[in-house]
Design a protein that fits this description.
mainly alpha, transmembrane helix, 88 residues, membrane
Amino acid sequence: MKPVVSALNAWSCVIISVFAIVILSVLGSLYSSNNHAYTGSRDEPEDGPAVAASIYTAVIVYAGFFVFCGFQAYLHLRDSRGGAISLH
């Protein structure tokens, strides 16, 4: 298979996806535990688990990006080594 995106875009997407998964997972866990710093005050959401569910949906989307972009980066690495079958 040939890569669809460039190597720079693939690796950038992998790095951004990893950071997004980590940060959003932490935020989701804080909202799901009804942490007083994130829920309950006047301008904060009152239903922490509902907010956590939408954040976890974003984590799943970023996990999909991570898998797709990681596969694209793998294809670039394989292509730079001479293809799927190397006769060295």
